[in-house]
Amino acid sequence: MIRYTTLIFFIFLVTGNIKHPTQIVSSTHSTSNKSGIITGADQTEKYLPYLKGKRIGIVANQSSIIGKKSSVDSLVSLGIKIVKVFGPEHGFRGNASNGAVVGDEKDDKTGIPIISLYGKNEKPTKEQLADIDLLVFDIQDVGCRYYTNINTLEYVMEACAENNKELLILDRPNPNAYVVDGPVMTDDKFKSAIGIHHTPMTHGMTIGEFAQYLNGEGYLKKQCKIKIIKVANYSHDIPYVLPISPSPNLNTQQAVMLFPSLCMFEGTAINEGRGTYMPFTILGAPELKGKYSFSYKPVSIPGMSEAPNHKDAVCYGLDLHNYNIDKLRNRRQINLSWLIELYNAYPDKASFFNQERANTGVSPFDLRIGTDQLRKQIIAGVPEAEIRKSWEPGLQKFKAVRAKYLLYTD
After folding, report:
1. What would the pLDDT profile of 138-173 be if each residue is shown by its tens digit?
2. Could you give the CA distance from residue 33 to residue 103 in angstroms, rounded to a whole number?
3. What is the 3-state secondary structure (H, E, C) of 212-270?
4. Minimal CA–CA distance to 194: which of 27, 8, 363, 80?
5. How far is CA 238 from the centre of its chain?
6. CA–CA–CA angle 99, 201, 265 (5° rounding)
7. What gap in Å lies between CA 290 and CA 292, rounded to an integer?
8. Comparing C-alpha atoms, which of 307, 64, 264 is closest to residue 146?
9. Neighbour count for residue 375 (Cβ, 10 Å)
10. Bridge partners, 113 (sequence order)
11. Residue 38 and residue 248: Cα distance in Å, rounded?
C-alpha cells in the first residue's frame, strides 16, 4: 500500500498573475489517506488470473495506475497481452486540454494502438472490439455529472453490450462521494457532452457503482456484463487524496474538492482559474476591479487551457486555494454562495450568464447545471435556502434510486 503525505504548497502573486512550477495533488487540510484504502487496480491478485491468456483492451488515462506506475505499463510488464488502449477526454497520457479533439495514435512507450474516445467516435466500434476478449475500465472520476468520464463509461458499456464483450472495472474512490447535491437533470433538452445522465450535479458514486446504476436504470438498450474489483477499506465518507491529477486542470487536491462548486462558473462571465496553474481554486473577472483586492491574469497554457476566459486581462475576485474543504464536507453540500455573491457583485448582470448557443437554444450554464431554473432563480434574487429547497424533491428521489447500486456505505 502506497502512503501519500499531505504537501503544503505556496502561491506567489507575480505582477498580477498566479504562477506555480509543478502540478501537485495535495491539500492544506486534513485529507491525507490514512485509512488503508486499496484501489481495485492495486489488488492485482484479484484480477490478474482473469486477464491471463486473454486479448485485453483497456480504457485508461494518466490516472490509471498500479502503485506509482501506469496500469498499462504495469500490466504489460506482468505478461498481460494488451492489444488496444482507449483514451477518454485529455487522451491516454493526459496531456490534451479540456474539450480538445484527440486523435488515434500509437503509444510511444509501448507501441500499443491508442483509440480516442474523445474525437471521431465516443464509443468503441464493432471493428475496434473485434480482436479483444475482455475490456478493462480503469479511470479516476471526481463524482460530477459534468465530468465526462461517466459519459465515456456509458458509451463503453453500450459498446460491450452490443458486441457481447465483458467489462472489468477496476474501481477507485470518488473524492467527492460524500456529497449528493444540486438540481437533478430531468429534461433531455439539457443533455450535452458535459451531461447525459438524470442525476444531480454530484452523484456520490464510484465508477463501479455508477456502472451498476447505468445497467439497472435502463440507460442501455441491453445490459452490459460487468465484473467489479471493489476498493478495499473504503466508504463514501472517508477522505481520499488522489495520487495523481485526474485531468490537466484538476492539478491539486484543492481543485478536485472545489470542482463541483467552481465548475458551475463555466458558462458565466467569471474565469474559474483556467489559464493559471491554480485552476478551480480562484475566481475572477476584469469587471470586478474595485470590488475585490485579489487579482491574477489568465494566460494561454498549452496542455491546460490555450484560450481561457479573459485571456491576458487582469481578473479580480476570490482566492479559494486555502479555503478549508472540511467546511464543505461538514455541510455535505456544493457551495452555492460564491455563485450568488459574484453575480450580485458583477456590474453588468445581463452579460453574467453567457448567451444561448445557436445550435441548442440552451445557454452553456444551463447545460452544465442540467436545468434553467437555477439561472432564473439567481437572476430573480431567490435566497439560497429557497433554491436548495427546490432541489429537495429531485434529490430525495435520486437518493432512493442510488441506494440500490451502492457497493460502499455513506
Report:
1. 999 999 999 989 999 999 999 999 999 999 999 999
2. 36
3. HHHHHCCCCCCCCCEEEECCECCCCCCCCCCCCCCCCCCCCHHHHHHHHHHHHHECECC
4. 363
5. 18
6. 55
7. 6
8. 264
9. 19
10. 106
11. 24
Amino acid at 409: T
Alpha-carbon distance of 99 to 251, in angstroms, equals 17
Q: What pLDDT, on a 0 to 100 scale, did the predictor assign at position 120?
A: 74
The pLDDT value recorded for residue 107 is 77
Is residue 14's pLDDT more than 70?
no
Max CA pair span of the chain: 66
Q: Which three cell numbers stand for residue 22?
A: 509543478
CA terminus-to-terminus distance, the chain: 23
| Strand, coil or helix: 186 | coil
Q: Would you say 139 and 65 are in contact if contact means Cβ atoms under 8 Å apart?
A: no
CA R_g for the chain: 21
Give the pLDDT score at 117. Answer: 87
Does residue 48 contact residue 78 with C-beta atoms inside 8 Å? yes
Q: Beta 81-87 vs 55-60: how paired, if at all?
A: parallel
pTM: 0.89
Spatial distance between the Cα atoms of 253 and 175, rounded to a whole number of angstroms: 9
β-partners of residue 315 are 296
Find out whether 211 and 78 touch, Cβ atoms under 8 Å. no
Q: Grid coordinates 472490439 are at which residue?
A: 129
Q: pLDDT digits over 22-71, tens only?
A: 233 333 333 445 569 999 999 999 999 999 999 999 999 999 999 999 99
Q: Nine-digit cell at 360? A: 441548442
